Amino acid sequence: MKQRRMKWFALVVMLGAVMMLGACKKKATPPPPPPPPPPPEPTASISVSPNTIQAGQSASLTWQTSNATDVSIDGIGAVQPNGSQSVSPTDSMTYHLTAKGSGGSQEATARLTVTQAPPPPPPTPTVTDEDLFSQNVKDVYFDYDKADVRGDQQSSVQADAQFLNQHANINITIEGHCDERGSTDYNLALGDQRASAVKAALTGAGINGNRIKTISYGKEKPFCTESNEACWQQNRRGHLTYQK
Amino acid sequence: MIRGKREEQTLQSKSYRNTILSCPTPFTPTRLDEPDRLSFTRLGCNRYASWRGPSRPALALVLIFSCCFLSSAFSSALFAQDWVKTGTSLGVEKVRLAVPDFKASTTDPQNAALLKTFNDTLWNDLDVSGVVELVSKSFYPLQVPGQPPEVNYLAWNAPPPNAAMLAFGSLGVTAGKLTVQGWLYDVKNSQSPQILGKQYSDASSDASARLMAHKFADEIIFRLGGGIAGIAETQIYFVSDRSGHKEIWAMDYDGSNQHQITRLGSISLSPRVSPEGSRVAFSSLTKSGWEIMMFSLELNRPVGFPHMGGTNLSPAWSADGMKLAFSSSRGGEPEIYVADASGGNLHRLTTARGPDVSPSWNRKTNAQISFVSGRTGLPQIYTMEADGTNQQRMTDQGYAVSPNWAPNGQFLCLAWIRKYGPGAPGASDLYLMDIASKQWVQLTHDGGRNDFPSWSPDGRHIVFQSSRSGKEEIWTMLADGSKVQQLTFTGRNTQPNWSWK
Fold first, then answer.
1. How far is B289 from chain A (nearest CA, A)?
2. Which one of A29, A211, A222, B484 counts the least CB within 10 Å of its CB?
3. Is B63 touching A (CB cutoff 8 A)?
4. Cα angle: B246, vertex B249, B253; to 5 degrees
5. First-to-last CA distance in chain A?
């Protein structure tokens, strides 16, 4: 009986001890240390000047970063934390700067707009001359089997002479053409005369003959191939062409 | 190429009497089959002086051509007028010639095709020659000869064939070698019938069969046509666009063997073969304009000819091959110039205003040149001495171009739109003009645009360009306008020029 009491007493004591111990342990845990202060975040900025260029021109790309260890720009690659660079892209593009540091990463963008070259600016002389030539110079038309410049064609000759006087750098070739009627050889001779007649009219109006070549095509290269008077008249002409 | 074994006999003097229209006045006709029988003969019932020159328009001259022999259609009303009879083989009755197909002399399988080529070529050569009348094959006896012993004289010289002459022979291939034997017999003279006997042999080919036929035809035509060489071996040069550009081409006179000569890729016109046949002069568009160019048929390439400057057109050889006349605008207006065949020694013959083009030498005398001039407006035909003097206008109206001087020196063939003007869209037809009298006769009638006549060397044929088939092609005809044949069918073909031999 006495032994049973001892057992119970021991059990209670042990239980009490365990409980005491557990309580004591809890009280002994230290408070966690305060977290380290966070590193400073990186900063980044990028700009392009000017922000609009024409194809072929260049612009200056400038960027600044701080607190960054790894700086790169898309399309350019890794760069110094601060710097500038000249760029000349052919198309509009956005420069995308990424700055990474221990405090995080930061991005910045700059947009460069590229405009395509405008129609050849002050148009180059040769092209203009040719355009002007085709706009202003008129062919001279002839009567059947005739090689003299008829009255109603004098205005064309005068206009042509005026144009050539104003553009002294232009040389021309006058092609003599004939309609399909008549014989091959005679038409070539007639076409030669028509070309010469137009040349004579132009030199008479003050154009230097050295600027003018003549060639006869007879009926070999007609402008129009129908067999009627309207078409034939189209083919009976002195055709002025720009000499390249 | 072909070595013919000559076994011909001397042709006994055969005379084929002139057939002349009767004339009220006694009169001895000029013998026309004398050496130079391409002559212009007046069967005059009036005095010569009475019709000289064009100033006597009242004297309507009737131009009659031998090749279209005088028929009874000419009424007696004509007897009161002068007659001018022009043409070739004048007054000669055409010989009735029978030409049975040649027979095979061997059993080679090639024989059939070669016989067809030979027989067709021989028949066509004789048919278009203008000197014989071929007896229709439907009149022939059933048995035709291939060898002299097989000739049955009576079967040929009596009606229905009623032939005066018989051309016959055989063809055979032996071991790749083609041999042709041909004879011409006078079947009305059984005692001494042989006029011609020929043997030809060469490597077997269609071309050699054709050439043998041409050679045999020329032998027959030479003997039956008054001693004038046949034309079966002549060439025609022309312009064709079938390659895509106008280039110079050549073909046999019957249209076979068409082949390209130049390959310049530009525009080449007006081919003119030299009299000896070794070069072709032509006009071509170069970088510096239209220039006369020269192509060597022996070297098969262009050879040098100086550039003249200006527009240079329509070369023409003198008959001796020493000179070239052509049109050049190097001095301003297109004028006729003459240079040596090398291009040197250039000098100018004409000075008139207006284009002068298309010279053609008098092939007989080599001393005159005809040409086209627009000095009075529409182009007309003129003649002048070869030094430029004595310029004479030949045509009186219309649009006249492309003169070509006949080998006999007495005619021009030309292209003429006689009735030209608004409301009178006349056709361009070929005309024959007697130079002494300026009288003319029309050869083509309302068949498209006809231009660029060129005489055959025998003076019996004319090659020309015509659009009568719908587009420009090369045609030939006898000098009287008969026997018209189309030679080209591909592309546009223009400006034919017949070789001189």
1. 6
2. A29
3. no
4. 140
5. 137
Tokens 């072909």 identify what position? B2
- Chain A CB contacts of B399 below 8 Å: 145, 182
What pLDDT is stored for residue B14 in this prediction? 37
Put simply, the answer to whether B311 touches A184 (Cβ < 8 Å) is no
Q: CB of A69 within 8 A of CB of A101?
A: yes
Structure confidence by residue, pLDDT tens digits, A54-69 = 877 888 888 888 888 8
**What is the residue extent of each domain of chain A?**
43-115, 125-242
Cα(A64)–Cα(A108) distance, integer angstroms: 10
- Interface size A-B, in CB pairs within 8 Å, comes to 80
How many CB atoms neighbour CB A225 within 10 A? 9
- Per-residue pLDDT tens for B416-433? 998 876 655 668 999 999
Contact B381, B404 (CB under 8 A): no
Distance (Å, whole) CA B447 – CA B490: 19
What's the Rg (C-alpha) of chain A? Answer: 48
| Mean pLDDT, range B39-43, rounded to an integer | 38
Residue, of B447 and B235, whose pLDDT is higher? B235
The amino acid sitting at B184 is L
Among A143, A175, A188, A194, the residue to mutate for chain B (most B Cβ within 10 A): A188
pLDDT digits (tens, 9 = 90+) for B105-122: 999 999 999 999 999 999
d(CA B188, CA B154): 8
d(CA A215, CA A239): 10
Q: What is the pLDDT of residue B496?
A: 98
Please judge whether B311 and A188 are an interchain contact, meaning their C-beta atoms are less than 8 angstroms apart: yes
CATH classification at residue B160: 3.40.50.10070
In the three-class reduction of DSSP (H, G, I as helix; E, B as strand; rest coil), residue A141 is classed as strand
Decide if B344 is inside a domain: yes
**Could you write out the DSSP letters of every residue in B117-172?**
HHHHHHHHHHHHTSSEEEPPGGGS-S---SSGGG--HHHHHSTTT--SEEEEEEEE
Q: How many domains, chain B?
A: 3
ipTM above 0.90 for this complex: no
**Backbone phi, then psi, for A103, in 5-degree steps?**
-90, 10
| Positions of E strands within B142-288 | 165-174, 177-186, 194-203, 235-240, 247-252, 259-260, 268-273, 279-286
Two tokens at A93? 């593009």
Q: Which two tokens stand for residue B407?
A: 């080998």
Run of H or E residues at B442: strand B440-442
Of B378, B379, B495, which has the smallest distance from its Cβ to A184's Cβ? Answer: B495
Contact A216 B311 (CB under 8 A): yes
Task: Please report where in the chains the tokens 């097989």 appear, as a residue.
Answer: B150
Q: For residues B423 and B434, is the Cβ–Cβ distance under 8 A? A: no
* Tally of CB atoms within 10 A around A98: 18
Q: Residue B41 in contact with residue B30, Cβ under 8 Å? A: yes
Do the Cβ atoms of A188 and B313 come within 8 Å? Answer: yes
Neighbours of A161 (CB within 10 A): 17
> Quick one: average pLDDT of B84-88?
54
> How far apart are the CA of A57 and the nearest CA of chain B, in angstroms?
44
Q: Which fold has domain A125-242?
A: 60s Ribosomal Protein L30; Chain: A; (3.30.1330)
CATH architecture classification, A43-115: Sandwich (2.60)
* Same domain membership, residue B139 and residue B50: no
Pairing type for strands B83-86 and B62-65 reads parallel
Is residue B35 over pLDDT 90?
no
pLDDT value, residue B32 = 36
If asked whether residues B255 and B359 sit together in one domain, one would say yes
Note down the domain range covering B24. 17-92
Integer Cα distance of B113 and B80 in angstroms: 56
What global pTM score does this model have? 0.73
List the structure tokens of A13. 């004591």
